[in-house]
Amino acid sequence: MNETPRVNGTTPLMSDAPFLDRLIVRGKRPELTIVLHVEELYAHCAKAFPRSSRWDPQTCTDLVDPAVSTDRSVDSCDDRYMPGLDLTPDELLTTTRTVRKRLDLDRPVPMELIRECLGIALQAPSGSNRQTWHWLVLTDADQRAAIGELYRRAVENYLVSSGAAGKLFADDPQRSKVQTRVGDSVAYLGEKMGQVPVLVIPCLTVDSLPSGNQAGLWGSLLPAVWSYMLAVRARGLGTAWTTLHMQYEQQAQEILGLPANIRQAALIPTAYTIGTDFKPAPRQPLDDVLHIDRW
Fold first, then answer.
1. Global pTM?
2. Burial group, residue 94, by CB count within 10 angstroms (0-12, 13-18, 19+)
3. How far from chain centre, in Å, is Cα 65?
4. pLDDT level of residue 75 (50, 70, 90 thresholds)
């Protein structure tokens, strides 16, 4: 072959890649790995590179930007150092699962990544384009622990209630197994919520809750929350949609310093996941729930 392959992409140094455990040799786990993410592949004439003097330090001065520090921590990396997952739109929509036990409680989540995902969420629709949403992002350990304690207490109440996930569909052996696993993972998150690196609480400006149908009200926020969760999943992180802490809404409002007209909608734990191989979940057959033209 008389051509040289050229690869365009990124090669981050990673110390916490999930596959490092699979590279253990003679009991020794690598401390660092270089991950090659191929974005483009070209075929070049073999003489092109020496002719260009691209790697001659005497002629090439743009390999390092002096304005950019080279002392860059892997833990503070942004999406240039942690590329998104290669998912089609359908794969993203069907594999964005509720993640509880596989949330990585130890790996920091860069605030810039959260901001990026929230920026995407703001493109969601809202009634009359009012955009009356607000987003609380909790990273402070004390704040996370305080909200986590409210969630833990709420989970305790939930698990002994008749509507707890683990108690549903007990007469269906196949579904009851799934429900038992869900119940176990809820209990786990109840104990760990305050340790999740980032807690996101989406809120809505509401002077007073209307009586009757509130679909239009919350419909101006919930699509944006789902967009945030999709954006996070696309970047290798996981979330869970939770609302149980709302049993203690007033206490949460005081912890967060919320004005009286700001109402919470959910509590979304956000963290990198232990592995990213999530799959579509079993669901009811479409024909069991589909109605055309009338019931």
1. 0.71
2. middle
3. 31
4. very low
